[in-house]
Amino acid sequence: TYIATAPMPWIDGYITWATAEVTQGVKCCRFYREGNQFCPSNFVDNTTDTSAASGDAYDDYYGDYGDYGDYGDTAVTPVPPTGACLPCNTTFLGRGDRPGPEQFSQTIDWFLAANPSDKCPSGGHAAYGDSVRLEDEGGVRVVTSSNMMAFHTILKTRR
């Protein structure tokens, strides 16, 4: 077979996720002010975010059952720590700049745990969660192996 499309490397997805500017509509790389833990894109910070205050006719649609869809970051942090979410330092990089080794080490696990959502479609869990292997080396997260996703054509002849 032949590769039909350009491969989709996880590093491009990571850089998009890590450097996306955090706004009302986009909430990718964020962390809780208290505890310095990953803040998922579906977490609504009522102390600063007023988008949920408008109310919606479907707010109570799920009742006590919660949202069991295969999207959102509900499995990452079941009980969120208290405190506001802050944007990662990587979101303040200049255009074309990449995260440094310390920033990468801090945020790569967050990227691989982040599920794509309407607030952050570039979360890496769905596409790359099992594709990137990480290890600690001297307190720094290091990629030991990875693979890329690509689509292949159908083999039509034996040649």
How would you characterize this protein structure?
The protein is α+β, with helices and mostly antiparallel strands. It contains 3 helices and 4 strands. The strands form 2 sheets. Strands 1-2 form a two-stranded antiparallel ribbon. A hairpin with a 2-residue loop joins strand 3 and strand 4. The longest helix has 13 residues. The chain is globular and about 65 Å long. About 16% of the residues have low confidence.
Task: Summarize, please.
The chain has 159 residues and is an alpha+beta fold. It contains 3 helices and 4 strands, in the order H-E-E-H-H-E-E. Mean pLDDT is 77; it is low at 49-55 and 60-78.
* Lateral arrangement of strands in the main beta sheet: 1-2
Catalogue the unreliable spans. 49-55, 60-78
- Mean model confidence by pLDDT: 77
How many beta strands in the DSSP annotation?
4
Classify the helix fraction into a percent range. Answer: 10-25%
* Order of helix and strand elements from N to C terminus: HEEHHEE
Cα Rg:
18 Å
In terms of DSSP E residues, the strand content is: 5-15%
Count the DSSP helices: 3
Main beta sheet: 2 strands, antiparallel
Q: Which structural class best describes the helix and strand composition?
A: alpha+beta
Shape: globular
* Span between termini: 10 Å
